Amino acid sequence: MMDTGSSPKLTYFFQRGDDREMYKVPRFSTEDDDSDYGTSSANGVEERLCYLRDGKRKVDFVLVYETVGPSRRGSVPASQLSAVQDKKLMKQEQWRRKFMENLSNAGLDMEEEVVQSSNRKLVYFIKIHATWPVLCHYAEELNMRAPLQAHPNPSVNWSEIALNTLRLPNIMYQDVPCKPLDFYTCPFRKSKIDRFLGSENQETFFSNTQRSRIVYEILSTAMFGKKKKGEVGIDRLVDEGIFSSAFPLHDGPYEVKKNSKSSPMNPRQVLYEYWARWGCWYKYQPLDHIREYFGEKIAIYFAWLGFYTGWLLPAAIVGLLVFLYGVFTMRYNQLAVEVCENPRAFKMCPLCDENIGCNYWYLDDICGYAKLAYLFDHPGTVFYAVFVSFWAVTFLEYWKRKSASLAHHWDCMGFQDEIERPRPEFAARAPFLERNPVTGIQEPSFPRSLRNKRIAAGLGIVFLMISLVIIFIVAVIIYRVLVSIPLFQNATFRSQAQAIANMSGAVVNLFLIMAMSRIYEKLAYRLTSWEMHRTQTEFDDNLTFKVFIFQFVNYYSSIFYIAFFKGRFVGYPGNYTLIINLRNEDCSAGGCLIELAQQLAVIMIGKQIINNAQEIIVPKLKAWWHNKQVKLPKKRRTRWEEDYGLVDYEGLFEEYLEMVLQFGFITIFVAAFPLAPLFALLNNWVEIRLDAQKFVCETRRIVAERAENIGIWFKILNMLAHLAVISNGFLIAFTSEFLPKLLYQYEYNWNLEGYINFTLAYSPNGTLREQCRYRGLRDEHGNHTPFFWRLLAIQFAFVIIFEHVVFGVCRLIDILVPDIPESLELKIKRERYLAKQALQDSDTIMKVAAGVDDFGERSRRMVLDLTAEISNELHPPDPLPPKRSLTSCSMNQHTRDRPNTS
To answer: What secondary structure, in 3-state letters, does 641-658 show?
Structure first.
């Protein structure tokens, strides 16, 4: 029996011998054993706890599983187990053992260590190391790229160039240590390994992310059962509960001790000190460091988020100036002057039926509301709507250029996973086998016709949920009507009745939206799983489509209603439109645009606050609950124990969805709320730090994934940008008072004198006890006036002209701004030339040098000249040493004067 007080560890070594058999060497140690793995250095550069026990072989991956007793098969006695439970435990143990045997046969070195937790659970950590031959073999199989030559032109960003040109100090720049170098690269080949920089150092030639990616490839393809049943890969084992988790290790702790500030830091500490800390909110993101540590998929997300946030700055500044223009010119608003300086001039009709106690009221009762409405409906907002329409399309055009530059810089241009494996859940549930047309291997399959039927049924459920959202919108409309009636009956709250009803309705709508969002996301995940999509890419794309369609309706439907439908179908005294015997709500005398601004502000800002609070609290609660369940000893934890106490990485889906919905808020409805980009900018400054801290401090290290761009999200952003042009055109034409005032100025009075009186119609005789005024361009019989029809024609003409002009200019921008910069095209050609010389011409050169080919003396001299020329191309005179450790901080000291990629 094991002494729980000393928490001993039982370690097994799994190695590959000449007879390809696995053997074990047990070793006992306790927490008080000073020789256990050595001690980590103070500066954190060499974290010995990231190595196997010999201190030489890196831990490239860790597998974890738990049992509930001292034995490997569980602590519960067999007599207390049912036959089914005992059979399940035996099957799990059989799968686990066969899986580890296959890993050993694949050439991986393994160590197993057991830790007894406080709640008498045994936690098994299997540490995996990939040998040099395995790394070389799979690097070629995975088409990884290796460095040929240091890049002569380091990447810079446009803001740094602009500030340098203007000779202004750049407060955003920071000198990040250990910056990864730029290289010309080509696909790795074992036969040409001597051509690659740093190949003589086997410890550092492959980075930690590359090593973990290679090991994950082996883990994902290793069998543990019958291949026909899809019993393949670590993901399936984790889903089945055979393993609790599988993850690569972090490169040491993220905290930097005060007494070691001057010492070199590990990559995780560099990311924390120069990226994840709140004090770095205004600094460039070290994208090359992020890519080096987390891989291209994570780096491209932060590159897009930083690029988007940078572009929000001019939009926020212009929006703030437009809002301040409204504040400073508010006193000159002729409409507010006409309302406020003519007391008792306009007797308005009751907003509800007279028989339930609603009285007549006067327009000057809402004097303050009319003044406030001017802030969101003045000529500046029209200009801003046009500006944001161009801004959105231009932003996407320049992101395509940035994305192409990053894809080439990170060796991901043209990347696609041509042989994508079936999802573990699909493999477990697929009822048939089918030959893969690419690999020719029998794989689990699901009939396409049955999948299409399930997709159609899933879409039906999506539309059912959308109908439920519309029902909730109607409920909120009824709520606003019911709340406004008692407020309007009270003389004290009469002037604020509509404002209170609208604001409280927006808050209620926000809570309904958030609740529906959580419910639907779980439902959409289940639906997409039920549809049986073969690959993870197909699954993600279908899930993204379902969730975005629903969230679009969920978040934007109430805003669309206020923008384009509220107040359009009210009717007039004697002929009102009713909903459940209640009069349909009308816009206030200040117009619907201020109500739209209220709704947009509450939903957008409230959503941001709730999401940020969740991102701060939820990971900490998950980590606390996980550690409470496991209860590992706190004294002298190893690196893998520390990382196991962190939470799992949950993907970038929620992060992208949040930002895409925000992009819709600030583009589609920006004419109503010019401050929306400013609030988005403030939120994104916080969002970048929260996400950075989550990845660096709170989650286990993820397996580095490659990605060329942001994928399907760019198509969604492009759709929203085009929808924003159409929406802003209709907002200016039909919701704002811009065109009605412009037509009135042209036909009647340029100073807008009498405009309020002109837009208020008289109630038809006999419909009410007293004659009163209501909002509408109607005559004494309730019919629309000729001015209304002229205005309607102008409004439609404006939308068509506005849309064609904006789309035309955007198309011109698309033509003038190439997707790939000219400098990048030259780099691509240069890289192809070097790769061709290094991997093809060298064959002939080496043969000639060895005397294999029977050439004459002249041919030999020509080949020798060509050899010298290629040598100069591959190794030009440069202050950088030609071959050194590619991950060493000392190598990068020569590049500290080079700007960071941001």
So the answer is: HHHHCCECCCCCHHHHHH
Q: CA 247 to CA 236: how far, in whole Å? A: 14
Which of 22, 169, 38, 5 lies closest to 107, judged by CA?
22
- Residue for token digits 């504040």? 327
Q: What is the CA radius of gyration of the chain?
A: 34
pLDDT given for residue 256 in this prediction: 82
241 Ramachandran zone, left/alpha/beta (phi>0; psi -120 to 50)? left
Q: Output DSSP code: residue 222.
A: -
Q: CA-CA distance, 773 to 503, in Å (whole number)?
A: 26
Dihedrals phi, psi of 14, to nearest 5 degrees = -115, 120
Collapsing DSSP to helix, strand or coil, 773 comes out as strand
Q: What is the pLDDT of residues 802-858, one digit of tens each?
A: 888 888 888 887 787 777 777 677 777 766 776 666 655 444 434 443 444 443 444
- What CA–CA distance (Å, rounded) separates 550 from 465? 8
Eight-state DSSP code of residue 697: I
Residue 549: CB atoms within 10 Å: 16
Burial of 770 (0-12, 13-18, 19+ CB in 10 A): exposed
Could you tell me the two tokens for 156?
Answer: 């810079």
Helix (H) or strand (E) holding 761: strand 760-762
- With tokens 């019958």, the residue in question is 226
Angle of CA points 753, 755, 760, to nearest 5°: 145
Residue pLDDT, tens place only, 684-710? 999 999 999 999 998 999 988 888 888
Dist CA 463 CA 469 (whole Å): 10
CA distance 481 to 491: 17
Q: How would you classify the pairing of strands 245-247 and 61-67?
A: antiparallel
Residues whose CB is less than 8 angstroms from the CB of residue 543 and which lie 6 or more positions away in sequence, other chains included: 524, 525, 528, 653
**Of the candidates 658, 815, 794, 664, the residue with the CA atom closest to the CA atom of residue 726:** 664
Non-local (6+) Cβ contacts of 432 within 8 A are: 444, 445, 446, 447
Question: pTM here?
Answer: 0.82
Looking at residue 837, its amino acid is Q
Q: Is 671 helix (H, G, I), strand (E, B) or coil?
A: coil
Q: Which amino acid is at 491?
A: A
Distance from C-alpha of 32 to C-alpha of 3, rounded to nearest angstrom = 13
From 70, 69, 72, select the one nearest 2 (Cα to Cα): 70
DSSP 82: -
φ and ψ at residue 464, rounded to 5 degrees: -65, -45
Q: Hey, what amino acid is at 391?
A: W
In sequence order, the β-bridge partners of residue 27 are 11
Candidates 24, 28, 49, 46; CA nearest to 37 is: 49
Helix (H) or strand (E) holding 405: helix 379-409
Alpha helix ranges (H) inside 694-785: 712-730, 738-747, 755-759
Picking from 141-155, 316-330, 404-418, 876-890, which range would have the lowest pLDDT averaged per residue?
876-890
Q: In the structure encoding, which two tokens stand for residue 131, read together?
A: 């040998």
Helix axes 208-221, 287-294, angle to 10 degrees: 30
Element (H, E) at 510: helix 497-530
The pLDDT mean for the chain works out to 78
Which tokens sit at 606? 């409230």
What is the secondary structure of 109-167 as a DSSP string? EEEEEEEE-TTS-EEEEEEEEE-HHHHHHHHHHTT-EEEEEE-SS----HHHHHHHHTT
- Give residue for tokens 């399959």: 445
> DSSP states of 3-52 as a string?
-TTT--EEEEEE---TT-------EEE-TT-TTSS----TTSSS-GGGB-
